[in-house]
Amino acid sequence: MTLSEEDYIKAIFLLSKDVEKGISTNAIAMQMDTKASSVTDMIKKLADKGLVHYKKYQGVRLAEKGRTYAAKIVRKHRLWEFFLVEKLNFTWDEVHDIAEELEHIKSEQLIEKLDAFLDFPRVDPHGDPIPDKDGNIAKVDKVLLSSAKKGERGIVVGVKDSSSEFLRYLDKLKIALGKEITILNKEPFDNSVLIELDSHKISISALTANNIYLKTI
Amino acid sequence: MTLSEEDYIKAIFLLSKDVEKGISTNAIAMQMDTKASSVTDMIKKLADKGLVHYKKYQGVRLAEKGRTYAAKIVRKHRLWEFFLVEKLNFTWDEVHDIAEELEHIKSEQLIEKLDAFLDFPRVDPHGDPIPDKDGNIAKVDKVLLSSAKKGERGIVVGVKDSSSEFLRYLDKLKIALGKEITILNKEPFDNSVLIELDSHKISISALTANNIYLKTI
DNA sequence: ATTTATTTTTAGACAAAGCTAAAAATTTGT
DNA sequence: ACAAATTTTTAGCTTTGTCTAAAAATAAAT
Ligand SMILES: [Mn+2]
Ligand SMILES: [Mn+2]
Ligand SMILES: [Mn+2]
Ligand SMILES: [Mn+2]
């Protein structure tokens, strides 16, 4: 598998997470910041290799072989992110692009030794689960802050958008994994959410609330 | 710089170490396990980018720009090797190929943080010096075991051949960095060397002796 | 049910990096 | 000094992955 093939298969894997149907050419092109025609070319190659199921104009689905391969790349990506934050003191907004390269290093032994060195972490710095060595992913139960109800309390356990910009905005709001949040009110006018955090009341926009995951308590 | 360009510039850098003249196309092809015609193509590209000086049929020399770039790749290679051995418990014969990939990860910040995490090591697991962040390399003074004289003593500080096969052979002989060796005798017939190691006498072939560096004491 | 708009695929080009085979230059041997 | 051997370069092809522009298929709108 080439680096490029790996990035495609991973993109399809991530896009398939909560989608039942085939993934569209355009969706993949968007995710990978490339052109639809390039995607079509690559999909054909992946189909020839038996990694995806593909019928023209019908979108693409991962074959079992492709799914486990993709999960392993995601495993590497997230383990490296954990390493960068926990051992090298990077912040959670700095690690994605570096992990995007590190995830392609080809050595089973390396990743198993890294896993042990890190003491077998179960989630990455953004709260995303780290697949095990066979590609299985633990189902984390979490809800979006935007869908939590007035009066509920929860711990921040993840983010949906993990772009640097969003993560730095959360830093500014003092929102981080592990923080406790209480939903004080929801404003019907603009769907903003009034929360209590560190004994302060702050208002969170609908867009922001739609990108924060809570585990309700 | 592409991965391939980086590997070429590094190869030229390593071949230039104790050579004054231009590096030949064939020597590079040999080192990189590729064909001379491919080397010629790449050299032209590197020359266009100002990384090397090149005149047809005259071999190639690193330009200053190329030298510092190459030194940075070597720095990354050796720091990662150190990490693999010291933190992930790899053995010295297992790390080269993995470092060959890791050396291409593009992040200044990553390598500086890794350096700090490792506590600024000065040599890699094979005794080779780790260039500093500006590409300067400390001159280590060491001699080949093959050139040490009868009666001299020394500490093993490096290897010339760092192939897995040779390193595993050294493991078998119980020769490792830091071990003390006394030259008891040199056999004129086949240039083998009789040494004392861990209070045992063993005979080392000329070829083996020519790939072990000592710091005499 | 057509027409219009959007999505997807194809066709044709291009850059990177490699190869083989042949030509050109340099080095070596006598 | 000149022929033979070796090294280096060139020419022409191949594979990967990308792109633009045009054609084909599907989806949406009237
Ligand atoms: Mn990637
Ligand atoms: Mn992540
Ligand atoms: Mn390399
Ligand atoms: Mn080394």
Keywords:
homodimer; 217 residues; alpha+beta; Arc Repressor Mutant, subunit A; SH3 type barrels; 3 domains; two-stranded antiparallel ribbon; 8 strands; 41% helix; 17% strand; binds manganese (II) ion; DNA-binding
Structure, described:
2 copies of one chain form a homodimer. Chain A starts with a helix and ends with a strand. Chain A folds into 3 domains: 3-62, Orthogonal Bundle (Arc Repressor Mutant, subunit A), CATH 1.10.10.10; 75-138, Arc Repressor Mutant, subunit A; 143-216, SH3 type barrels (Roll), CATH 2.30.30. The first copy, chain A, has a 6-stranded antiparallel beta sheet with strand order 3-8-4-5-6-7. The longest helix of chain A is centred in the middle third of the chain and has 23 residues, at 64-86. Chain A is globular, with a radius of gyration of 19 Å. Chain A has helices at residues 3-16, 25-32, 36-48, 64-86, 96-102, 108-117, 164-173, 206-209; strands at residues 52-54, 60-62, 143-144, 153-159, 180-186, 193-197, 200-204, 212-216. The first copy, chain A, is built from 8 helices and 8 strands, in the order H-H-H-E-E-H-H-H-E-E-H-E-E-E-H-E. In chain A, helix 1 crosses helix 2, helix 2 (25-32) packs across helix 3 and helix 4 packs across helix 5. Chain A has 217 residues and is α+β, with helices and mostly antiparallel strands. Chain A is 41% helix and 17% strand. In chain A, strand 6 (193-197) and strand 7 (200-204) form a beta hairpin. The A-B interface holds A 84, 87-90, 94, 97-98, 101-102, 104-107, 109-110, 113-114, 117 and B 84, 87-90, 94, 97-98, 101-102, 104-107, 109-110, 113-114, 117. The site of one manganese (II) ion (MN) has 4 residues of chain B, from loops. The site of one manganese (II) ion has 4 residues of chain B, from loops. Chain A binds a DNA duplex (30 and 30 nucleotides) through helix 3.
